[in-house]
Amino acid sequence: MKVFLLVAALLIAGWSPRAAAAPAKANVAGEIERFTVDNPADPWSSAKIQVGGQVVIIPRNLLMDLPANRMSAQAFFAAAPAACVANGESGVAKGDLCNKSGVGGFATISANRAAADSAIVAGDVLIQKGVEAVTGIVTYVAYDNGYFRIDGVTGDPASGTMVRLNDPTARHTIQQGPECLPGSQNCSPDPRFTLDPDNYTNVFSSGYPYCIPSTVSRTFADVLGLGVTTAQASANGTGDVLCPSANNPTNPDGTPNTATPANDSRLFGPIKPGNAISVEGNYETINGVRFLSVHTSTILRAVATKNLPTQPDYLFLEEEFIDAPAFYNQRGRTLNIGFTTLAPTDVLFWTIHYDPATNSKHEFPYASVLGCDAADAAGTCSAQGLAGAGANIFRIRHDLDFILAAANNPPGGAKPRLSACLHIMAEPRFNTAGSVCSATPTLGEEMAVLMPIPHEIQARTGHRLANPGLITLDVSGSEATNGQYLFPFGINLGGVEMQEFVEVDLNLMGTPNLFEGIPWNLDRRLSPGGCLDTGCEATPQPLDPFPVSGLDPRTALNTLILSQAGTLAGDVPHTPYSNANYTAGAYSDVANRMLGYVDPTRPARSGPAELAAAGVLSGNFNGNSSMVSFPPANPGVISITPAVPVTLAFIPTGLPATGATLTATPAGPQPSGAPVAFTATGAGGSGTYEYQFSDNVTGVMAVTRAYGPASDWIWNTTGVPNGIYSVMVDVRSFGSTSLSEASATVGYTIAPATVSGLTLSASPASPIAGGDNVVFTASAAGTDPYEYQFLG
User: Fold this and answer.
1) CA 333 – CA 327 distance, rounded (Å)
2) What sign results for the dihedral spanned by CA atoms 335, 202, 62, 106?
């Protein structure tokens, strides 16, 4: 009877048993052929993306991952390059008119079908503009324009792969040059695919951030006491006080000096010719120049930092993952591998969870290198390498074995070297309120540390905690981060480890993705960036439509695996749980924590002073009282949108436009506020053109409408002061990447209306009898519009 009542309750709630709904896994990856957003006015709008010959629904409230960014579909379109925004396009679809590359970007999508004959709905999306990766030797550095070349002729500015960091905030580079679009941020061709300016993705292999010295003069506030406020490199890259040569130590023959640390780690270290480097990004072609736009790169040598209280240190997280529910492998696992600039390694980790009321972050103890060593033995997690810089490598693993726990061997299912609880309890710098677990941890206590799955984790070095307030300046002279690393998690981005039935049951490999175990899928407000700056909604915001699996993450292991095996041994823990470090209220079942969220009104927790000052210790989970709404609505059968093959929108001819004309209607002068229509015509070339309009109302010629197929443009002169202005059109053949192939400019005068003549007539003509009406009509000549005043 109890089972019947449970099933009935789920059906009333809109949830149907898996056998009836028949959801299925529908993952897809490949070139983006088409991409449209459903409602450009809705910041969380759903979208449709065509990949691998399938049209996939990106549900409302889903935030897509990019290599170092996270955006809704609507925000992704709104932040596209100007020519794409003008067409309402994404810029990454093969069929986009603004995409001149002839190829689409790359999408990796985890998705389900809710039922047979139903559309595919995504639960996680990773968008990459390209997947190019190159490893080689730096053979040329352009200190004037801020780029470098790989595997060319040494010292040759024209050979080898040209590399520009996609660095819109000028964290690592000061960029300029002909391959930079007008108005671009530090020459970034597409800031959506930026590098991470705070959790460095362009580093030496130890995690130390690198820079390109610049011959461009920069002024900065001397907060480090350098004795200067201006930085500028010489032509050979030396002498840049914000990117000093001594921070990439080299021997007299130019080879890396691995025995010497960076001279002053408050500043980045310079890339140098001869450095081996690996880079990742996508190719761009601007003004006929092709280059690799890079979001991630590693100089393949370790630069160390000095172990001094005045010198910052750095770290890099190389590989991270945590198992997502429903733990079909009958274990909960994590992996944390990284590098530091100080040896021995000393890093502490916290999981980050966002609350649904303010979308603020809250941190909870997760792992520690020295805590691991203390719980097991020295070197268990630190010093994972061999000689040399091997001491700068760490690896922390958690492996909570449900079968061992069921056998009480040990109760928590993990040896000391693999126990989350024992590592945390052996780390006094977490400054927890009492013990986070029993002296002999239970499986429920161990798993509570790992649940709910986080969207981000935060790492900090022990050196940073011991020396708070250390300042780093980047190549622009702006303050930058040190001693920390925030790592984003995603299913396809990395970090969220979904089920691998190839290790469990080959008959279950088509089991749908269990998106119900991902908290931010059940409520977008639990994700970083999950609310607008104006605030969060008052109600949960699940994916809509939801890519249902028909499973409950708390019971799916039993439903799919254990019940078929005829045993309950090795199940997810279902014991009560309460610990003030992880929840203010009690859970009747620790498995409910999979669906938990932070209540920001709960009292602040204890922890390091730096974290308390940052406010990330405020709030807490609140047991059964703070759980996301479950289950999500089953959308049922959704009509399938047929895929439409893509025919390339352009065929470059190689023939540039040779001429342009530009006319204005009406002719000037006109008063401020009068609309003026400009019409352009191209000549020569392919015969099919793109037009870009500019004016000098601001004092300099600036683009007012980016390149597009429309040959006319309306100039809104409202608010334009009286004066003589220039309007210019640039013309290029359709498909060209040149900045301009032909142009035309016309002058136009904005001036008050003038009257050059006036006539006045009466009807009927004089004389007339007294008492009759007379109509007087005035007609002015000159610049309209006019105003008339009659006196009698």
Assistant:
1) 9
2) negative
Choose between 783 and 502: higher pLDDT. Answer: 502
pLDDT in tens, 25-67: 999 999 999 999 999 999 999 999 999 999 999 999 999 999 9
Which pair of structure tokens corresponds to residue 691? Answer: 């037009």
* Closest to 282 in 3D by CA, of 395, 128, 393, 167: 128
Under a CB-based contact definition with an 8 Å cutoff, are residues 406 and 570 in contact?
A: yes
pLDDT for res 17: 41
> What gap in Å lies between CA 66 and CA 32, rounded to an integer?
14
In words, the CATH class of domain 657-750 is mainly beta
Contacts of 316 (CB under 8 A, 6+ apart): 200, 203, 205, 206, 207, 338, 339, 340, 485
Which is it for strands 54-58 and 47-51: parallel, antiparallel or unpaired?
Answer: antiparallel
Here the tokens at position 628 are 């996301």
Q: Which two tokens stand for residue 248?
A: 């990439």
Q: Distance between CA atoms of 403 and 382, rounded to whole angstroms? A: 28
Whether the Cβ atoms of residue 704 and residue 694 lie closer than 8 Å to each other: yes
* Residue 185, pLDDT above cutoff 60: yes
Residue keyed to tokens 């292991």? 557
Burial class (CB in 10 A: 0-12, 13-18, 19+), 719: exposed
Residues sharing a CB contact under 8 Å with residue 71, sequence separation 6 or more, in sequence order: 63, 64, 79, 192, 529
Tell me the backbone φ, ψ of residue 424, rounded to 5 degrees: -70, -40
Q: Per mean pLDDT, which of 383-392, 404-413, 778-787 is the most reliable?
A: 404-413
pTM reported for the whole predicted model: 0.83
Q: How far is residue 297's CA from residue 202's CA, in Å, rounded to a whole number?
A: 5
pLDDT tens-place string over residues 356-378:
999 999 999 999 999 999 999 99
Give the position of tokens 């002024």.
219
**Residue 285: Cβ within 10 Å count:** 14
Task: Give 8's pLDDT tier (boundaries 50, 70, 90).
Answer: very low
Grouping H, G, I as helix, E, B as strand and the rest as coil, residue 340 is strand
Distance CA 511, CA 551 (A): 10
- At 207, the amino acid letter reads G
Domains in the chain: boundaries: 132-189+209-299, 315-509+557-625, 657-750, 755-792
The backbone torsions φ and ψ at residue 135, rounded to the nearest 5 degrees and listed phi first, read -125, 135
- Residue 555, pLDDT score: 97
Distance CA 424, CA 415 (A): 14
Q: Can you say whether residue 15 is alpha, beta or left, with left for phi > 0 and alpha for psi between -120 and 50 degrees?
A: beta
Q: How far apart are CA 554 and CA 589, in angstroms?
A: 10
Q: How far apart are the first and last CA of the chain?
A: 100
Longest alpha-carbon distance in the chain: 122
Q: For residues 672 and 718, is the Cβ–Cβ distance under 8 A? A: yes
